[in-house]
Amino acid sequence: MATTTTTVPSAGPVAGWRSFLSRLRQGDEIAQMITFLFAASVVLLTLLLVFVLWQGSILPRHKFGFNFFRTSVWDPIFDQFGALPFIYGTLVTSAVSLFVAVPLGIGAAIFLAELAPARVSDALEFFIDLLAAVPSVIYGVLGVFIVVPLMRSYIQPALQNTLGFFPLFKGPAYGIGFLTAGIVLAIMVIPYIISVSREVLLSVPRDQREAALSLGSTRWESTWKVVVPFARPGIFGSVFLALARALGETMAVTMVIGNTPTISASLFSPGYSIAAVIANELTEASSNLHYQSLIELGLALFLLTFILNGIARLLIVATSQRGRRTGHT
Amino acid sequence: MSPGLRWRKFVSGFMLTMTGVCALVSVSVLFLILGYLVYHGGTSISWNFFTKLPAPVGESGGGMANAIVGSGKLLLLATLFGVPVGFLGAIYLAEFSGGTTAFVVRYAADLLNGVPSIVIGMFAYSLAVLPFKHFSTLAGGFALGLMMIPITLRSTEEFLRSVPNALREASMALGASKWKTIASVIVPAAYRGILTAILLAFARVAGETAPLLFTALGNSFWSPGWNQPTASLPVMIFTYAIAPYDDWHRQAWAAGLVLLGLILVINIVARAILSRGIAVPRA
Q1: B119, B180, B268: best to mutate for the A interface, most A CBs within 10 A
Q2: String of b and e for B181-207 (b: at least 16 CB within 10 Å)?
Q3: Chain A residue with the nearest C-alpha to that of B104
Q4: CATH for the stretch A66-326
Q5: Is A124–B84 a contact, with Cβ atoms under 8 angstroms apart?
Q6: Domain limits of chain A?
Q7: Residues of A in contact with B148 (CB under 8 A)
Q8: pLDDT, averaged in runs of 10, over chain A (329 residues)
Q9: pLDDT (0 to 100) of residue A25
Q10: A2, A90, A148, A297: least CB-packed within 10 angstroms?
Q11: Angstrom distance (rounded) from CA A38 to CA A103
């Protein structure tokens, strides 16, 4: 025993060195090193991104503190920066988009997963994937030339006549504004909701449906009371994913929101969003404080989407694993 | 049939029809988009669009030749930067790394994938534009390449992992070293999937506008070399669509049609490549 313990440590490094050399000669160590460098560069770039955003927003953090997010004066001339109107615009447009997209998207996902024959479902899913690939600037063009005139001449007057007693639907119909931006965003995020929800619904084990049907429930009851609750976390995940996308969307929103920093109860009023103000002002920032305030807005946007994406991923993974666990193989 | 049951059956039929309507509405949006673009873009597209420079304000005619070339250059740079990093990183994740490193890299890639494109633009601006004090094609390519990395990395890794272990073992048993196994067995076995991943990443960044606003900026003329601001199709669409001139609107439609056509074709080709399956039977 004693002899082995004394010889092993001395033989170990030599043997290790030798096998290292032989592996090096075959190139394995080099291949591993090269690929490791590339993999590590992904981590470094991500860290650098966080560092640049953090380091770049020191001035406003020190000068305004948390008031940056609570005040609503955005005045580059007097170096006063309060981001509330942009945050308000981002949240309102995202809320409107979810209000439209969630029922439509989940309804469509239920149809694709539960009702449509597999062939039809796959074909439609193909079109929905294509829809998700349409670049946002194209949605912006359609928003400017189709949605805005439609809103101005038909939808906004109609809403005013029927629901005008709500403060939400008061004020002149410009066409551009929170409501229009929200609707364009809804069109953009629907494919995400459908695709992910469909996937999650399909992962619900078959015996759950059969059990409900055999107990005498109708097709809809088995879907709504058994399958959907089973898949609920994953469906929420798809909604969070859509929300993260809507919050960070730039081009389509910039083109239809009106780019006026206002906080108004009316959805018809023109507004502004975080991403839009960055797009419009970053290259023309008048002072260092102005520039850094925009970076701080970017940082806020980054953190928000980071958290939402994280929650979404957890929910989706949890649901599909639950389906795999419960389902018999 | 009792009235209760009849009511339940009615509700069931009604709600299921409604889900069908939802699906119909969502899918018909695609055809509306395509229809409008083909209609407006088709009437304003011409040979000049592909061969001429943009006309000065007030003059009609002109094209977007510089933007088409600019987009091509930006995408070439993006591919040269994003694909090697994503591809080799994925090989490390799938073939070499242990659990913890893989988790960290994957986490970073997912994080990068979720970053809004405007923030990517901001990052590229402060890294590749501010220090040099001028906008450039290189900066734009960097921003787009950065967006390609996570998409390429994650899907390539997935496809490499789907190659059956028996293939790896067979190759090693014949005495091949690990990197030889990877280069001549595993990557060829997964090449369809990897190609699809790269094509989809390419299509995704081809339409990105926000990161280019601060990096490649725009240009009404040709952009020689790699170190000057350049026009690109997405940014041209943006500036032309929000300008107040009818002639520019027509150009924006035409550019939109060209861009969307390119992206949809790449998407369809990518899916066609993949649907033929991975060339190896799964273990």
Answers
A1: B119
A2: bbeebbbebbebbbbbbbbbbbbbbbb
A3: A43
A4: 1.10.3720.10
A5: no
A6: 2-55, 66-326
A7: none
A8: 43 64 73 91 95 93 90 88 93 95 94 91 89 92 92 88 83 88 94 93 90 91 92 92 92 92 88 94 89 94 92 87 67
A9: 63
A10: A2
A11: 43
